[in-house]
Design brief:
The protein is mainly alpha-helical. The protein starts with a helix and ends in a 13-residue tail after the last strand. Strand 1 and strand 2 form a beta hairpin. Helices cover about 45% and strands about 5% of the residues. Helix 1 packs antiparallel against helix 2. It is built from two helices and two strands, in the order H-H-E-E.
Length: about 90
């Protein structure tokens, strides 16, 4: 079983990603648009850097739905490899 603090921290990141998604996407599009003036693109880079780091989607770590385990995670079933083993039930956690 993973530490509750790790699971809660990841949930906090998921909320923050949803909160800043539109703002981050707009700034990201502005930085990649070559038709925008270089000064404006640089200003967008600075604004993007000032956003919280945890608002980036890459900071979210996939975790098992049953145990919270972060390693050996299968995306299709949202479980770790250990939770998929035969004979493993939630009662055995």
């Amino acid at each position: 079983m993973a530490k509750k603090s790790q699971i809660n921290r990841n949930k906090k990141r998921e909320k923050m990603v949803a909160q800043y998604a539109a703002r981050r996407a707009a700034l990201k599009a502005k930085t990649e648009d070559m038709s925008v003036a270089p000064e404006d693109r640089f200003a967008a880079h600075l604004k993007l850097a000032k956003l919280p780091r945890n608002s980036s989607k890459t900071r979210i770590h996939h975790r098992c739905e049953l145990s919270g385990r972060s390693k050996g995670y299968y995306r299709k079933v949202k479980l770790s490899r250990i939770a998929l083993r035969p004979g493993m039930t939630k009662a055995s956690w």
